[in-house]
Amino acid sequence: MILRLAFGSLMARALTVSITVLAISLSIALFLGVEKIRTSAKASFTDTISGTDLIVGARSGSVQLLLYSIFRIGNATNNITWASFQDIAAQQNVDWIVPVSLGDSHKQFRVMGTTNEFFKRYKYRSKSNLKLQDGAFITDLFDAVIGADVATELGYQIGDPIIIAHGLASFSKHEDQPFRIAGILKKTSTPVDRTIIVSLEAIEAIHVDWKSGAKIPGQSTPNDILRKMDLKPHAITAALIGTKSRLQVFGLQRFINEYPKEPLLAILPGVALQELWQIVGVAESALIAISAMVVVTALIGMMAMVFSSLNERRREMAIFRAVGAKPSLILGMLVAEATFVTAIGAILGCALLYLGLFASQSAIDQAFGLWVPINAPTKDEALLIFSVIIAGAFISLVPAIRAYRMSVSDGMIVNV
Amino acid sequence: MVNFELADNTVPDSKNILQLHSLLYQWPGNNSFSLSIPKFELLTGQTALLIGESGSGKSTLLSLICGTVKAHKGVVSVAGTNLSLLSSGQRDKFRGENIGYIFQQFNLLPYASVEDNILLPLQFAPNRRAQVTCPHDEAQRLCNVLGLPKNVLSTKARTLSVGQQQRVAAARALIGSPPVLIADEPTSALDAATQKKFLELLFEQSKNNKSTLLFVSHDIRLADQFDKVIHMADIVARKSGKL
Question: Which residues of B fall within a CB distance of 8 Å from A321?
Answer without folding.
Answer: 68, 92
